[in-house]
Specification:
The protein has one domain. Helix 1 (about 1-10) crosses helix 2, helix 7 runs antiparallel to helix 8 (about 120-140) and helix 8 runs antiparallel to helix 10. By secondary structure, the chain is mostly helical. The chain has 10 helices and no strands. Helices cover about 50% and strands about 0% of the residues.
């Protein structure tokens, strides 16, 4: 399963030439995506994960929204990555930049795929990946998912989340090498869903933003950004595999 999780992690990165081999390894769930030329894959990836926010790929966002707790979650991940000697950014990376934030789904999946610590795997699978994937799939209209963005409790800070006991109380000072890049006040409102508009914004402004969001989502659905989206099929298969892994890990740990 860990090798398969690695293939998922690479399939959920921006498509490159080597992506094809990972899609092939995933089998039928990625068959529609693998049929697309690289240029079309890149276009679909951007439309799905970047431009229209159909499926925001950052796990911490789905768990905590754009809150202090997401900052603490990012700091916790960096600490875990370093503790297990996982290189979450290239060795030659500019110290003032980062390929992806630490909570990008591809990075967490790659980390989990390399872990030999079964308890650590179980924590990230059960408390981070599975609940976030349910929220992500809701964006494509799957009934088991959460509907985005209106009245979605997962977009607000979660009280007493299981991961909180491991999260630093002062995240920015817990990661001196990374704090400038992960300053949570630096996220652009342009990339934030309407339910995260400034708390001082009036209801009329928020209503207009939500209306615009609904209109855009309708247009995206017309383009096929719904259940038929090839990435939706990959994410759904990933969730099913993670649920199997969760059951396996819980069984192992209960007998340890």
């Amino acid at each position: 399963m860990q090798k398969k999780l690695y293939h998922y992690s690479q399939a959920l990165k921006y498509p490159e030439q080597h992506t094809a081999s990972h899609l092939t390894a995933l089998g039928s769930c990625a068959s529609e995506l693998s049929k697309l030329a690289l240029g079309k894959q890149r276009e679909l990836f951007t439309r799905t994960f970047d431009l229209q926010m159909i499926c925001y790929p950052y796990i911490g966002y789905h768990l905590f929204g754009e809150s202090f707790k997401r900052g603490a979650f990012l700091a916790m991940l960096i600490d875990r990555y370093r503790s297990f000697d996982f290189h979450y950014r290239p060795e030659d990376c500019d110290p003032n930049s980062m390929e992806e934030l630490p909570d990008h789904i591809s990075l967490i999946l790659e980390f989990v795929s390399e872990l030999n610590d079964r308890e650590e795997q179980q924590i990230l699978v059960s408390d981070a990946l599975i609940p976030a994937l349910n929220a992500m799939l809701g964006n494509f209209g799957f009934e088991d998912g959460l509907i985005f963005p209106i009245d979605n409790a997962s977009r607000h800070p979660v009280a007493n989340h299981p991961l909180e006991e491991d999260m630093p109380k002062d995240p920015l000072h817990s990661m001196p090498d990374d704090h400038e890049r992960l300053d949570m006040t630096g996220f652009s409102l342009d990339n934030t869903p309407p339910d995260f508009c400034d708390s001082q914004a009036g209801d009329s402004f928020k209503s207009k933003e939500i209306e615009k969001w609904e209109e855009q989502r309708a247009k995206d659905n017309e383009k096929g950004l719904n259940k038929s989206n090839p990435y939706a099929q990959v994410l759904k298969a990933l969730l099913e595999d993670l649920e199997k892994l969760e059951a396996e890990l819980k069984g192992e740990l209960s007998h340890a």
